[in-house]
Write a structure and sequence with these properties.
This protein is an alpha/beta fold and 356 residues long. The protein has 3 domains: 9-65, no CATH class; 79-317, TIM Barrel (Alpha-Beta Barrel); 324-352, no CATH class. The protein has 11 helices and 12 strands. The protein has helices at 9-14, 23-30, 39-42, 53-58, 125-137, 156-167, 181-184, 191-196, 217-228, 247-259, 283-293, and strands at residues 87-91, 94-97, 143-146, 174-179, 202-208, 233-238, 262-268, 304-308, 315-317, 323-325, 332-335, 341-344.
């Protein structure tokens, strides 16, 4: 991780990102949850905008100290589905593999915010070996998803060894990596890292970005390097109050993703992580926002709006319903992108009615 990353109140105040008067609040939040803002992210923040959408994602806020009754330390039930250390096996055909629990930056809304941070565990070689043995022994596993923490923080040598070991498992067809690195520390997307990702298996990279303002020149260049290396890119976004909870913000983000060869994949409803209530929007509002994108925005720019059911019960789409039964067998009322309803099948034209 970059040595000049901003990690505490002194750093953030000195950089002009937070006022001196907020020091006690910053220290209280930092005592509970990890704080890190890379120089690349700091450069994207508009210090003259108190509502800057990039700042809101990364700068500690006293609202994080307010827990709500419904919030959980493990909001999506990772522990319930962890048969060996470093593995989460919630769905039969795919597993999460978490080789480390550190990130280049720490998002203030993270659903793993109580298990990630500086000094958190990196899997030992013996633990990596046990995780790989678990994958080898379960032939139904078709996809392995590297997450964490941020897998792209691994040294290229260690990352290459892990990718190589997964590539040698015959029944693993797909390797997916989830990362903030292209946005948070784009200089890490180096020739050595790209070489570490080389494999004959299908390798996909899910890039986490929540606002169009995150796509500065270094970030765009990093994504271009990944695309030129032949790595397909998909986008992961969290719907966040005060960051992207408007149709205009989502449209700008998804258009920017696609223009940079990133296909929007999931728009996540925020998880019930502790101290994150100030980020959560209402599900109905989220459905309305996604409905407003349908039609005016290219299909390439349409992610699936999803909720990870608390407790580890799986991910489900929250997409609005466009078709509802119309009372007669086989007939439906279908809503178009502008909100008007239409019968399906449509009424027969007069000249097509039998005997007309």
């Amino acid at each position: 991780m970059a040595s000049d990353t901003l990690r505490d109140g002194d750093d953030l105040i000195a950089a002009g990102l937070l006022p001196t008067a907020s020091r006690d609040d910053i220290d209280a939040v930092a005592a509970r949850y990890a704080v890190a803002v890379t120089p690349d992210i700091a450069a994207l923040i508009d210090r003259d905008d108190p509502d800057d959408p990039v700042a809101r994602q990364y700068l500690p806020h006293p609202a994080e100290l307010r827990d709500m009754p419904e919030e959980r330390a493990d909001p999506i039930g990772d522990r319930r589905w962890s048969p060996v250390k470093g593995i989460v096996h919630r769905y039969a055909d795919r597993v999460l593999l978490t080789p480390l629990h550190a990130c280049a930056v720490y998002c203030r809304f993270c659903f793993r915010r109580e298990t990630v941070g500086p000094g958190q565990a990196v899997l030992k070689p013996s633990e990596i070996a046990a995780a790989l043995d678990y994958i080898r022994a379960n032939s139904v596993i078709w996809e392995v998803i590297l997450t964490g923490g941020d897998p792209l923080l691994l040294a290229p040598r260690r990352l290459a060894a892990l990718i190589g070991a997964l590539s040698d498992i015959e029944h693993v067809a797909v390797i997916r990596i989830h990362s903030r690195i292209p946005m948070a520390e784009p200089g890490r997307i180096s020739p050595a890292l790209l070489a570490a990702l080389a494999t004959d298996k299908a390798l996909w990279l899910a890039v986490h970005a929540n606002h169009a303002n995150e796509f500065g020149a270094p970030q765009r260049a990093a994504l271009a390097r990944l695309a030129r290396a032949g790595i397909p890119l998909v986008g992961q976004t969290v719907l966040l109050k005060g960051v992207n909870d408007s149709a205009a913000a989502l449209e700008a983000l998804f258009r920017t993703m696609v223009a940079n060869r990133v296909k929007p994949y999931y728009l996540h409803h925020p998880d019930l992580a502790r101290g994150t209530s100030h980020f959560r929007v209402d599900i109905a509002a989220g459905q309305e926002l996604t409905a407003r994108l349908r039609g005016p925005v290219s299909g390439l720019c349409q992610p699936t709006y999803v909720l990870d059911i608390p407790g580890g019960h799986g991910k489900v789409p929250l997409t609005p319903r466009y078709a509802i039964p119309a009372g007669q067998a086989g007939r439906w009322s279908v809503r178009d992108p502008s909100g008007r309803s239409h019968d399906y099948p449509p009424a027969a034209e007069p000249d097509s009615v039998p005997g007309a």
